[in-house]
Amino acid sequence: FIGNSAHRTGPAAGQGASRAIGDTSVLAKCLRVIPDLEGAFRLFQEIRFARCRRVVATGRRSGGHKTASNMFSRWLRDTLIPIFMKGVKTEMEKHYAYRIDWEQHASATQHDSV
Questions:
Q1: Sign of torsion, CA 7 12 14 17?
Q2: Between the N and C ends of the chain, which has fewer C-beta atoms within 10 Å?
Q3: Model pLDDT for residues 65-92, shown as the tens digit of each residue
Q4: Cα–Cα distance between 56 and 10 in angstroms, integer?
Q5: One-character DSSP codes across the chain
Q6: pLDDT tens string 9-41
């Protein structure tokens, strides 16, 4: 299993599709460099593990704050989330500005930043 099958994020993270594409791209890079499947998957895990762990943790932290159980809670959430989101913009940009350089060969020393 790779991607959301192995490390499911909640919907609050908003990272499901982008992580699936990222996982696929990095795995393809690993297979390009290491034709042995076991070795390629080992390298893939080494490269992607830390980033995936951070994205899952971020989703878990932010997910519970979006659930509203009554009308006042919904109003408060809908009023405060736009204000709060401006304050966490920098943190979220780390996740959404992530890029995979296809031309860079996958290696054991490469680790996904942020």
A1: positive
A2: N
A3: 556 678 888 888 888 888 877 776 666 6
A4: 8
A5: --GGGTSPPPGGG--HHHHHHHHHHHHHHHHHH--SHHHHHHHHHHHHHHHHHHHHHHHHHHHGGG---SHHHHHHHHHHHHHHHHHTHHHHHHHHT----TTSPP-TT-----
A6: 666 556 667 777 888 889 999 999 998 999 999
Type of residue at 112: D
Closest CA to 54 of 99, 110, 4, 114: 114
**Can you read off the two tokens belonging to residue 63?**
């997910």
**Single pTM value for the model:** 0.55
- Contact assessment for residue 51 and residue 31, using Cβ atoms and an 8 Å cutoff: no
Q: Do 13 and 55 form a contact (C-beta atoms < 8 A)?
A: yes
C-alpha to C-alpha distance for 103 and 65, rounded to whole angstroms:
39
